[in-house]
Amino acid sequence: MGSGSPDRDVLERARRGDRRAFAEVVDACGGIVLNLARRMVRDRAEAEDLSQEVFLRLWRALPRYDPSRPFLPWLRKVAMNQMLNLCTRGADRARRRVESLDARAEATGESPADPAAPTGPGRAEARERAEAVRRAVARLDPDHRAVLALRYFGGGSCEDLARELSLPLGTVKNRLFRARAALAAELRGLVEDAR
Amino acid sequence: MNCEEARRAVSEALDGAPLPEEAEAHVRACASCREQAAAIEDAHRALLAEPVLPWDAARTAMVVARIAAEGRRARVRALAAAALLLLSAVLAGAVFGAGLAWPTPESLTGPLLSVLPDLGRHAPDPVWFDTLLPFALAALGGIVLLETVRAARPARGRSRS
Question: How far is CA A195 from the centre of its chain?
Fold first, then answer.
């Protein structure tokens, strides 16, 4: 549940202000928003808060959706714009939070729990790796995080990303390149810190 | 091909573009680019392997409850604004209607006329003034009321997307 496109009729009712229909939209698309949010912020609780905020704003923005166009790309675009607004506004707070989580993880040798993370004895390394990547992603600036989130969660081609971010194709390719380079640098830094 | 071009080509190859032979040759020969390529390929694999979180009905209920609460707050604000407006109108009507202080051209311009006598030639006609002033006040009140109601609606369709 939570990552499909809602029916046209449900969307139309939600656009006109029907809260029950909007609840169906949230049910159908919750997974998309939550997983994009999860790739924009470091921990799961923050991602859940962020996705709720995004849905409140989507409720306000929904009357502007043009029903003749596909819904999911519009949703991803609006959701990401809202996340960027919220992340930019809370950037300092988020950075402080990342630093405090890092400090706590270093002090206790633990990482924030994520029930969806791989479990089992053979998966410990994969979990650590995933956590290191998440920590490195959280240190990137919001534009880089946004392009990586859209590319790696249900994202299509670079052309699709360009449409979703309203950017020229060259800019998207450049942003992906810069984001990956920044991520590689952050990961190197984390590995060096661990030594 | 220089390092920057080779690294860019490696990044584009991760998105499905073919890796040009010269880029591949550069990466094989350049230790720094090899290290960078390995790091971004590693990050690419880790990002692809990131688990997908499920969405459950409890979260939907929380979103809907917040929307309902926001709607209730907006209605309370609208009612408070309308009550304030109504009270102001009643008070103004009571004062003006009782003839206690209905303004006249003279009462408004009198002090100025005594200082600037020429202004008297441009003073509004008393009949027009008496007719237009209530209409102007009513129109102003109407605009304020409409704006209040518009501002107090659950703000749908007005935020930047």
Answer: 30
